[in-house]
Design a protein that fits this description.
This protein is mainly alpha-helical. 67% of the residues lie in helices and 0% in strands.
Length: 221
């Protein structure tokens, strides 16, 4: 009988992520991971295709974990409440995973797979569709993610140096997003209800009006 495996792919990814979070990206080496799981470094290549491959697996695992947390934050009763909950879940995940989170949007480190990207963005797009309308779901989701990523990236880098309460700034911005996306939908509804289709086709000028216009133009020459 073959000897039982001394480790597993899941254990290797878990160990790599722990090293990444505790010691940083530079400390993530195949040797360090091998020592953490109790095998020789060459044995890891039976489980992962090198350091770059391991890093992508760590990012995907974390992205799918974030997707599950975002899904869990959405209750589906009120899109404004859901957007607030999504934003807080996003921020909380980034703060708990300060070394792994920045790799989500870093193409130099491979980023996340298409599956992980789609899964992690699904809840955001659903909530944005409910709040801003189906037609605006994608641009609205991009706006939300771009803002949230920028904010938490600055927060993780301790880049807010002007004083004041950072939590208050976060809540202020979230309320601004809710108001902006809600207002966008109301604006679209208002435009559609006040357009030509709301009252039928635009009326054509009467013959007398056309004649009067012709006389006016003639006398003005």
């Amino acid at each position: 009988m073959p000897a039982p495996a001394r480790t597993s792919t899941e254990a290797v990814v878990t160990a790599g992520r722990a090293i990444l979070e505790r010691q940083g990206l530079d400390a993530l080496t195949m040797q360090a991971v091998a020592e953490a799981v109790g095998v020789r470094a060459p044995s890891l290549y039976k489980r992962v295709p090198g350091r770059d491959g391991l890093l992508r697996m760590i990012v995907d695992e974390a992205a799918l974990e974030l997707a599950a947390e975002l899904d869990g934050a959405v209750e589906g009763h009120d899109p404004a409440t859901d957007l607030r909950a999504l934003a807080d879940a996003f921020r909380g995940f980034a703060r708990r995973n300060p070394a792994t989170y920045p790799l989500f949007f870093d193409p130099r480190q491979g980023g996340m797979s298409d599956e992980a990207r789609d899964r992690s963005s699904d809840a955001v797009r659903r909530v944005c569709a409910a709040l801003a309308g189906d037609a605006a779901a994608l641009p609205a989701a991009r706006m939300v993610v771009a803002w949230a990523n920028g904010f938490v990236t600055m927060e993780l880098a301790d880049a807010f140096r002007l004083g004041g309460d950072v939590d208050e700034a976060w809540e202020y911005a979230v309320e601004g997003l809710v108001a902006a996306l809600s207002g966008q939908r109301k604006s679209i509804r208002s435009m559609s209800s006040s357009g030509p289709s709301a009252g039928g086709p635009p009326s054509r000028p009467s013959s007398s009006s056309r004649a009067g216009g012709t006389r006016s133009r003639t006398s003005a020459r």
